[in-house]
Amino acid sequence: MEIRYSKAATKAIEAMDRPTKQRIRAGILGLTQKPPQGDIRLMQGYSDGRHRLRIGKYRVIYKYGLEMQLEILYIMNVGSRGDIYK
Questions:
Q1: Considering only Cβ atoms within 10 Å of each terminal Cβ, which end of the chain, N or C, has fewer?
Q2: pLDDT by residue for the chain (86 residues), tens digit each?
């Protein structure tokens, strides 16, 4: 499985301190396992299959895709609980 990050997600992760980055990356690696691990919920109001992963006070918005027989995990956004849903 390949992991792809959006520009916004990359920028948000780069701005975090080292322990938080490690927790976020560990959570994202848990999404590549079968079945995905973590506090995961399907997001309401979206028809493209977006999910959110809760890691403490942070949220990772992601979805799965398929491209030429290769499963891809798209990390759409990463942010704190209060700001991510706006």
A1: C
A2: 899 999 999 999 999 999 999 999 999 999 999 899 999 999 999 899 899 999 999 999 999 999 888 999 999 999 999 888 77
| Cα 50 to Cα 74: distance, rounded to the nearest angstrom | 10
3-state SS of 15-71 is: CCCHHHHHHHHHHHHHHCCCCCCCEEEECCCCCCCCEEEEECCEEEEEEEEEECCEE
Q: Report DSSP state, residue 6.
A: -
Q: Please state the length of the chain.
A: 86
- pTM reported for the whole predicted model: 0.89
Token pair for residue 30? Answer: 């848990």
